[in-house]
Amino acid sequence: MKFRLLAHAVALTFVAGAAHAQDAQKVERLEITGSSIKRIQEEGSLPVQVITREDIQRRGITNAEQLLMQISANGTGADNLSSNVGIQLGTTDRNNNGNSSANLRGLGASNTLVLLNGRRLATHGAKGNAVDLNSIPMSAIERVEILKDGASAIYGTDAIAGVINFILRKDFTGVEITGYGDVTEQGGGDRYNASITAGWGNLDKDRWNVMGVLTWDRQEILNGVDRAFSNGYQPSRGLSPDTAGTPFATQTGLAGTAIGASFRTPAGGATQTFNRANLLSFQGNCGAVDGQSQYETGIWNAPGFRYACSYDYGGREVLIQPVDRTQVVARGTFKVSNELTAFAEFVASRTEATKMFEEYQITTTGDFLGMRYPVGGPFYQDLSAYIPLFNNQLPIAYRWRCMECGLRTIETTTDTYRFLAGVDGTLFNKWDYKFGVSTAGSEAESVLGNGYMFTAPLTAALASGLVNPWLMPGQTQTAAGNALLEAARANGTKLFAGESSLIQFDGAISGELWQLPAGPMYGAAGFDYRKETYKFDDGSRTTQPVYQAPFDPQFAKAERTVKAFYAEVAVPVLKGFEITGAIRHDDYSDFGGTTNPKVSFRWNPIEPLVFRGSYGEGFRAPSFFQLYTTTTVSPVPGNVADPVLCPLSPNDLSVCAIRPDSRQGGNPDLKPETSKQWSVGFVAAPTPWMNGSVDLWQVRRDDRIYELNAQQVLAQYNTFPEALVRGTNGRLDGPGGYIQAGFVNAADDITRGVDLSLRFQGKMFAGSWNASIDGTYIELYKSRVYINLDYDSLAGAWSNRDLYPRWKHFAQFTYTQGPWSGTLYQQYTSSYGDQNPPGIAAAGFPSVDSYLIYGVSGTYSGFKNWVLTAGVRNLFDEDPPFTAHNLDFAAGAGWDPRVADPRGRAYYARVTFKF
């Protein structure tokens, strides 16, 4: 670790630490996330970070996504709503519309288990492999426990990277009404929230309590044009759009069209050829159209594009998509006796998200030759004045950014629910037990909004010549052209609909087994029975084809049952030294059984010092998508060589330049991903006003589920020889021949790092203060697809899916005096290597600068029944750091939403009235 950076972070706790005041604890047995044994709470053998309701309110957090962005152990990936706009990286992020995910350690959303009151939720109805954070009712949350260690030995699948347990408020009485507003200084991206909480009955006196929470919140849209840093055209910094799809169309080289496959100009001489032609470029006037610029051939080493214009489509992205959420929580508790409590709980939410990204880039080549501009059309663009051999008797092939089509829009509605009923209690004042039965579900439907067009009428509209792709500012389409475009719109067409469901019956018992010389020995045992179902309906099968719509293969309803048993024991070996062991066996109806152990220790040699450590094994079950997605067939892009036959006849193009079919889809033979992980560290309280912990950890995953493409199969055909299916004539491109790509169990990845947590408290003037910092240092992240290849190392480097910056922390300082309290917080992400896009002629992008922002808030509770909070987010209006990336395969043009908040300085206020 860089000790200078660590020392800087520790010092910051005194000026920007986090409030973590601990109320006096009742002496009662509690179940802490990561263990099924109820005991008197103490600093245990596992690293659990607790975030209280007060912390959440001081920071102005209204949804779970905002909270996870402030957790240092959470990955820096495309899991928030700003990062997943306009991208779809295979099945990793498929159908991610309106979905936000947790991603501890950067190991993927499907490797982080999200619980509500210690029990599972249904996965997102469309994504199908992770819980949607939008379904978490933050207004009803009492605290959040984050286990930063694997926990498959207790919870089963998905807990390789850790567990996030959202715990609801309980036993609430009275009425609480809250209103919240969060507005940006520069405009756009405002947030609003309102909630009402009501509860009746005192469990101790009345033996019953009922509670209800109703919440509504809105995230308003933020457009890229409203922020100067959202800019994909900064050529002096090596950033420029690599597209000739412009609002004023660029003609493209294609045999049989007006400019041919290539052309020459008098200025270029007899040898220089070009394959892009834009009238405005010839005139030196690309910038006459908003967002256009001269194509930067020097940056992209593309001399053939000398006479092209480019368009900064990334700088015109929607930075934050608009979202509306409505959530309801109802809970009833009845104390049957002092030893038995029964409860029922209902949680439901509706999320409406509108995903918008750039307008169509229409390319009139390949399968869309029919879209070429026709000879004799009223807007035919003759470039004979610039291209001597321009043939105006041939149609024009072009690339056009269809501004009239509008931003491509996908409207997704997600409904989730969970109903839980259960009992918990004690036996003989010694054994704690719990039983519960629950049903949960998530339904998501995405509908195409503005910006998408049906392929056939769009082709006919363009082929008619009545749509003008060469409009200048102030010009508009004719009435006839507009009518053709309007008739082609696919508004209201169902893109897809998905539904997941979960039925669960579980129970556990824990307590003291017997007294040993070093102390009591505790044990626990439990069971878990689940039935999981999923189905996915792809709209492309029920309507006419839509141009460039991201349809996915559908499959009929799939289901599986899971039966699990687990046990845990905590043994005091010596005074102050305890070993805990756990084991769980899961039996899946679709791929078999898996057994996962875990062992941990806690050693307290002296009162202010605890050493702790753990070793565990884990697994992640393949998702329904990965197992059962319908197989699709498509030709391999470009010409490829047969890896077996071409070396035998290297000059034979019939085997060295072929275009076979590729098949991709689900793989029912997939095995689970497996993991081995360990952590070791200590907790120390050297003074009454200070305590902290340091934990070194590592996670290694094997049999990673990975989606291969055909090129990867060919490159490593010896690893997957069965994937080369030869036809009746022995050829890959012969009758019956193909390349089997898709999902496989690939090789491994390893990540290792250090978690740091420090807490301080004391008295000052007439009040008290407390401060803290939670940070994570990534020493190593490396991965490989094939066991015979070298690892790719990504710690501190750029990646299009997950970033692994070396250091992240969140720090906070709070001072309280009487009814007043004030908080100053800091969020920091260290520098990392910048992208070096393929094709850039002059590489040399050193790094993306670190990101550091501050926030401040104040709370006053001196008015009877009222609590008032106001704050400033991003106090110094820090822009996101520059990155030489322009949207492709990761969101953001000149900035990265995985790291930074695009809203800038914002002011928020919360008013709470209680009676």
Task: Please provide a written account of the structure.
With 915 residues, the protein is mostly beta strands. It folds into two domains: 3-225 and 321-357 and 411-454 and 489-630 and 665-704 and 746-914, Maltoporin, Chain A (Beta Barrel), CATH 2.40.170; 242-311 and 361-401, no CATH class. Helix content is 8%, strand content 43%. It contains eleven helices and 46 strands. It has a 22-stranded antiparallel β-barrel. A five-stranded mixed sheet has the order 3-7-8-5-6. A hairpin with a 5-residue loop joins strand 44 and strand 45 (866-873). Helix 7 packs antiparallel against helix 8 (479-488). The chain is globular.
Q: How many separate domains make up the residues?
A: 2
Helix percentage range: under 10%
Question: Mind telling me the CATH class of the largest domain?
Answer: Mainly Beta
- CATH structural fold name of the largest domain: Maltoporin, Chain A
SS elements, strand count: 46
